[in-house]
Write the structure tokens for this entry.
Amino acid sequence: MDLLWFLRDTKYCLLQIFADIISAISTIMGILLLSERLGGIGGISRMEILFMLGYGVAVEGLFIVMFVNGNIGQISRIIGRGQLDHNILQPVPLWTQLLTQGFAPFSGNGQLLCGIGLLWFASRQLQIIISFPAVGILVISLCCSCIIMTSVIWLISCLAFYAPAATEEIAEQALHLFSSTKSYPLGTLSFYWQAILCLVIPLGLTAWFPSRFLLNKPIYSLSAGFLLLALAALIFLLLFIISFRRGLNYYAKHGSPRYTGFGHR
Amino acid sequence: MSMLCNIPRAVYSTVSMSAKQRFDGNALYIFAGYFINILKLVILVQIWKSLAQTNADLGDFTISQLLTYTLMAAIWHPQLNIVTPATASLWEGSIINRYVRPMPVLLSLVAETIGRQWVTGFVFFSLPVFLCANLAGISIRPASPADGCYSCVSLLLSVIIGFALDFLFASVATNLKNGCWAIVQIRESITSLLSGAFIPFSLMPPKIGRALSLLPFGSIASAPLSIYTGIGDRWSLISIQLTWAVILSLAVIPVLRKSEERMISFGG
């Protein structure tokens, strides 16, 4: 884990945590200041906007904590650099490595803690009763949104099986897609755009849609919204698994025409 | 003397080579970036249009001006968000190559930035977006011909400030060594927020907007875009930009010289 980095290189580890927090704050400040001036956006009040933004930051924070180590979150780098063999040769199933190798609880906790703080503050301002079931639903929703975000990034990263040089860094762009656009409140958009941004490019499923049903906003009830989010997570996860297995089959037949140890831990 | 005479040719060669190398094995990554910028532009345009339909307070802007502001922020994105190869090459170790080239290091980095990002960005992103703007019902014309001219002057000052800030951040990265990517992350984060390209300062709480417009980051994007759309006093905006351009340009050389003494480069 990254505890070694935290103990050996504390200064730079803390600097990275600080950078993550600054990054999280800056991605939400624009929308937050806009909602502050307008008194809310798209039928959502300022504190509800803050709740949505906190949810989005927490989702990305969870992604960072779970997958940032060892380029696991940006798996196109591993595939594109021909380093997947390093994982395949290990006497541990590949799926276990994908789920565990990226764990960075010490250096990657900046955004997650920031997001949890924003959620807590917004909940207090909105006078939401923080009960055990409510927290449980929130946590599961966060996990579902994280699964969606991770599945899409990994799904796009599967292109690296077929074009390793051209798509080595494609995961970075996929991550940037979510980081820079998930904080947009989609309530002001038409249903057509909301559908595109929730079903085709699931940006809305990582902040806006979950915050709507968690705050009991129309049109979906808490239970319906929660089930839809879970279903979407399952679908995107399945899409990733299918694509990854096909990519692995291709990789088994053709290998990788390039190898570089750059960035391998 | 002969080196001075060769500099224009060296700059042209650097720009040309950088532009041609931009897509070497990297095309999908580049076009994915353009796709994200277009998506952000589309979402933001939809948000502004829907806010206008609900008669939301758009500050000093009409909806047409706001759409033009957002469009030009996207078209001028390479010039308003300058990222030179300084920090990346420091990390990779290829910064040493710049010191053996027959041209000043800073000029080499400027030329590479223009070649890699401006030329290719103009051809494959800015120009197509500019031409398709009318189809989306967004006006591309400046508020007046004079505003258009002054916005070009303001853009030039923005470029100077942008390069100066990037070199100053690169100096900080040089001193931090392993922490250079954290500095890049902080820099990109605060620039995107404080430059006014994403959310105009007029749409922020008044005190915050006024304070941000006085900062060097605010002079990068908000000033030329505001002048182009006819918002705000062009002379005060340009004078603030000029002040920051002079201060930062004068600060860059001594700060860089001091940082060079601590530079460690391995690889290349």
